[in-house]
């Protein structure tokens, strides 16, 4: 109590009153701290914000009849959503792009590339595409053998050169939801490739489930049995 009274007397002249707590032993004491957290935007993210702020926005129909003073931007009217990585060093907060973590935060980032290979003996290319589109909606075709052949033939090349191009480009690549690549080669070889993270792992699991399901579908079984039928031979 004497220490408390002494501290209060020494800080009695301050504009902000000083509080001194003297709890008993083993007594819980909670002191609230209210402080606004400010993060500094650095690196590529800062340049991106400066470029977007420098671009003039087209005038709206309400602003056409306004004077120059009335067109001045108001506080809070140019708010912009910024997405990045928040890094805390001691009591300083910095917001930056993931590519700038090594330069501004001294952190090393690692990208894990995952691949899963499987063989689909029954399901064909059209059936795989139909199953993926039925589950994930529209998918993007990155490369297709038929497109390469058409480009060679329309360009005036010979048929023999187009046949050689078919041998070199027998792989079709589908992109599912912009994150998972499905590479389909000849003889039913399928490779699923994606960058490892929480979201992409879930999408890749769903893609693999669709591929395994379409392999045992009635359409795939019918297609396999049609191509595996042996020619009829008379019995003697």
Q: What's the pLDDT, averaged over the residues?
A: 76
As a whole number of angstroms, the C-alpha radius of gyration is 33 Å
Count of helix runs: 8
The fraction of residues in strands falls at 15-25%
Q: In terms of per-residue confidence, which ranges show pLDDT below 50 for 5 or more consecutive residues?
A: 71-77, 147-169, 227-236
What form results from the Cα inertia axes? elongated
Total count of strands: 8
Going across the biggest sheet, name each strand in turn. 4-8-7-6-5
Structural class: alpha+beta
Largest sheet: 5 strands, antiparallel
The helix-strand sequence is HEHEEHEHEHHEEEHH
Span between N and C termini?
Answer: 116 Å
Helix % is: 25-40%
- In the residues, how many domains can be counted? 2
Note down, in words, how this protein is organized.
The protein is an alpha+beta fold. Helix content is 36%, strand content 17%. It has 2 domains: 1-55 and 80-107, no CATH class; 113-227, no CATH class. It has 8 helices and 8 strands. It has a 5-stranded antiparallel sheet. A 3-stranded mixed sheet has the order 1-3-2. Helix 4 (125-136) packs across helix 7 (198-215) and helix 5 runs antiparallel to helix 6. It starts with a helix and ends in a 9-residue tail after the last helix. The model is unreliable at 71-77, 147-169 and 227-236 (pLDDT under 50).
